[in-house]
Amino acid sequence: MILHDYWRSSAAYRVRIGLNLKGLAYTSVSHDLTMNEQRDPAYLAKAPQGLVPALEVGGRVLVQSVAILEWLDETYPNPPFLPVDADGRAAVRAMALVIAADIHPVNNLRIANALRSDFGADGATVVAWMQRWMTAGFDALEAMVARDGGDFSYGDAPGLADILLVPQWYNAERYRLDTTPWPRLAAVVDRARALPAFAAAAPERQREAD
Ligand SMILES: N[C@@H](CCC(=O)N[C@@H](CS)C(=O)NCC(=O)O)C(=O)O
User: Fold this and answer.
1) Nearest residue by C-alpha to atom 1 in ligand 1
2) CB of 64 closer than 6 A to ligand 1?
């Protein structure tokens, strides 16, 4: 498997965690987002949105981190990323979507660049924007994890919600968001980060990390 990757990409970080949890070996090909390498024509031919991650496997290119994680889970069922019951699956997918659909898309690099170039935002304004949407999402997630969580976001085993939470928490720390309002999320993140699959996927452990 070839993972089109970037050490600091939280969406790629999700897939690194997923691959590690499944015990799958992969080769990482880095696309430096600061150099706009994700827009290279050769990469666009594989991944038309020009975003990382993408996973090349068996002659196909899978894109969109959540779709890749669900494909991994369906293809390699153990350990599972989702609970067995429909209610549990809906709860975990809802947690994951708070991040994947409601926080990350408005905080992505291209959005930050557009705020600067098209709307004249300075660095402090961009950081305030990032923090605002992470705060809204984490407020909701804290309540969801209080209801359904245990050692991890849902129950006592790591799953899809944790795979998305840990990279988003990394972004929160990167943008200096005070995370003390979310003690349950913080506890889950600490527990997850202690697991080898999560630790090995961390941005600072990637070869290209500066
Ligand atoms: N929804 C996509 C988001 C992918 C995405 O936005 N990746 C970011 C890095 S975290 C990226 O490649 N950004 C480059 C850009 O905005 O030009 C997914 O989950 O895979």
Assistant:
1) 64
2) yes
Distance CA 200, CA 63 (A): 22
Give me 36's structure tokens.
């706009």
Q: Is the CB of 30 under 6 A from ligand 1?
A: no
Ligand 1 test: best mutation among 6, 29, 51, most atoms within 8 Å of CB? 51
**143-180 tens-digit pLDDT:** 999 999 999 999 999 999 999 999 999 999 999 999 99
Residues 112 and 160 reside in one and the same domain: yes
User: 123-148 vs 160-174: helix axis angle to the nearest 10?
Assistant: 150
- Rounded CA separation 84/42 (Å): 40
Same domain, 172 and 193: yes
> What's the pLDDT tens digit per position in 115-151?
999 999 999 999 999 999 999 999 999 999 999 999 9
* pLDDT tens-digit map of 39-75: 999 999 999 999 999 999 999 999 999 999 999 999 9
Mean pLDDT of all residues in the chain? 97
Q: What angle (nearest 5°) sits at the alpha carbon of residue 112, between those of residues 111 and 114?
A: 65
Ligand 1: distance of its center to the CA of 145 in Å? 26
131 within ligand 1 shell (Cβ under 6 A): no
Pair 192, 94 in one domain = yes
* Domain identity same for 102 and 177: yes
Cα 16 to ligand 1 centre (Å): 14
pLDDT > 80? residue 210: no
